[in-house]
Amino acid sequence: MDWLDQVKWDAQGLVPVIAQEHGTKDVLMFAWMNREALAATAARGQAVYYSRSRQRLWHKGEESGHFQQVHEMRLDCDADVVLLSVTQHGHDPSIACHTGRHSCFFQRLDTRAPAPQWQAVEPVLKDPESIYK
């Protein structure tokens, strides 16, 4: 059986993917891959995702210059989530998020307020306007 056939693709032919920083183990981002993106990622050693909004493959860094070198790809026990161990490379290798932050997971739920609310707890490292020209 082909390794791609072992993945449990959803009804749209996609699988969720978590990108984790190789050294720190920080969760950098969540995205989707289709069969073509997963095969391209394995072949080129850089993350290639599927953009649902653009309906096309998206080589991480093609616009921002923040590429992800893939060290390892793992499949979870249900075969329906992929985990990538990556190192960020590019103009500013500390940025993985399109908001100019290190991680896309920069908001934390503050339950101490009268009503729970999301608070940004990670700084913007670079203005996104200067990244996406």
Automatic annotation (TrEMBL):
Cofactors required: Zn(2+); Mg(2+)
Binding-site residues for Zn(2+), renumbered to this chain: 77, 97, 104
Any GO BP: L-histidine biosynthetic process
Residues the record lists as binding Mg(2+): 76, 78, 80
EC number: 3.5.4.19
Catalytic activity: 1-(5-phospho-beta-D-ribosyl)-ATP + H2O = 1-(5-phospho-beta-D-ribosyl)-5'-AMP + diphosphate + H(+); 1-(5-phospho-beta-D-ribosyl)-5'-AMP + H2O = 1-(5-phospho-beta-D-ribosyl)-5-[(5-phospho-beta-D-ribosylamino)methylideneamino]imidazole-4-carboxamide
Cofactor binding annotation: Binds 1 zinc ion per subunit. Binds 1 Mg(2+) ion per subunit.
GO molecular function: magnesium ion binding; phosphoribosyl-AMP cyclohydrolase activity; phosphoribosyl-ATP diphosphatase activity; zinc ion binding
Record's subcellular location: Cytoplasm
GO-annotated cellular components: cytoplasm
UniProt similarity note: In the C-terminal section; belongs to the PRA-PH family. In the N-terminal section; belongs to the PRA-CH family.
Functional description taken from the UniProt entry: Catalyzes the hydrolysis of the adenine ring of phosphoribosyl-AMP.
Name listed for the protein in its UniProt record: Phosphoribosyl-AMP cyclohydrolase
Organism field: Rubrivivax rivuli
Lineage start: Bacteria, Pseudomonadati, Pseudomonadota, Betaproteobacteria, Burkholderiales
Gene: hisI
